[in-house]
């Protein structure tokens, strides 16, 4: 199954925007693409159940139509760490269930793009974290670096942790999340010297980002050469 697992150096660094752009890019190439956000907190209560804006945004870009509950099987209302939200709701998140969803969706799509919750080591419960889920799924990992002050440490630690897992690696990219950030080139050059993963591009600060615009900054061919 072709696919990608999107992780990041922190929360609120634009992982979903990048995921949308990747879905858009592969759809534009004529592929049947599904986007999944298996775990989401901060969902809104609606007449049809809890809904997450990020998951809905991914569904709008994908051209494989899926029920919301397939795209986001674990949805929680409080905007807190998902394992805490799950405990409060009396729900046990099961990575094997998520794996089953991904595999089933993979039979309907040419490519499945999965967005992990939070950063690489975010807990799913007291014993399993996002890295464990990524390893279970076996999809090439793309690391999104939210570029702001402090990002170098976060990026290098995350890259080291991903490498140590021995998972397939799709690459890494920079998303500038602080419009006041200075020395952007120097920061990226530092990371390029120290991260051995394929570099997929830099997304600048965008006031009103769209999937189409973000995709223009990504080297999709570099991702493709490191998928399998």
Question: What does the model show?
Answer:
It is a single chain. The protein has about 230 residues and is of the alpha/beta class. It has a single domain (about 1-35, about 95-225), classed as 3-Layer(aba) Sandwich (Rossmann fold). Helices cover about 40% and strands about 20% of the residues. It contains 10 helices and 10 strands. The strands form 3 sheets. It has a 6-stranded parallel beta sheet, sandwiched between helices. Strands 3-6 form a two-stranded parallel ribbon. β9, α8 and β10 (about 200-205) form a beta-alpha-beta unit. The mean pLDDT is about 95.
What are its keywords?
20% strand; alpha/beta; 228 residues; 10 helices; 40% helix; six-stranded parallel β-sheet; two-stranded parallel sheet; globular; Rossmann fold; 10 strands; single chain
Helix content: 25-40%
- Along the chain, the helix and strand elements come as EHEEEEHHEHHEHEHEHEHH
CATH superfamily: P-loop containing nucleotide triphosphate hydrolases
Rg to the nearest angstrom? 16 Å
């Amino acid at each position: 199954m072709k696919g990608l697992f999107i992780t990041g150096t922190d929360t609120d660094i634009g992982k979903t925007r990048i995921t949308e752009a990747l879905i858009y890019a592969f759809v534009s190439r004529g592929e049947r693409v599904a986007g999944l956000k298996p775990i989401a907190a901060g969902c809104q209560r609606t007449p049809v159940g809890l809904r997450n804006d990020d998951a809905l945004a991914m569904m709008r870009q994908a051209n494989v139509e899926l029920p919301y509950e397939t795209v986001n099987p674990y949805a929680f209302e409080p905007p807190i760490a998902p394992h805490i939200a799950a405990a409060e709701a009396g729900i046990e998140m099961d990575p094997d269930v998520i794996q089953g969803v991904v595999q089933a969706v993979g039979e309907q799509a040419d490519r499945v793009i999965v967005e992990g919750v939070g950063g690489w080591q975010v807990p799913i419960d007291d014993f399993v974290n996002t890295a464990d889920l990524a390893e279970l799924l076996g999809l090439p990992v793309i690391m999104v670096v939210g570029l702001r002050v402090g990002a170098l440490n976060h990026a290098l630690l995350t890259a080291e942790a991903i490498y140590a897992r021995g998972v397939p690696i799709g690459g890494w990219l920079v998303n500038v999340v602080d419009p006041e950030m200075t020395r952007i080139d120097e920061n990226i050059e530092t990371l390029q010297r120290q991260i051995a993963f394929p570099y997929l591009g830099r997304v600048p600060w965008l006031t009103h980002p769209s999937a189409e615009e973000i995709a223009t900054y990504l080297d999709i061919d570099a991702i493709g050469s490191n998928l399998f």
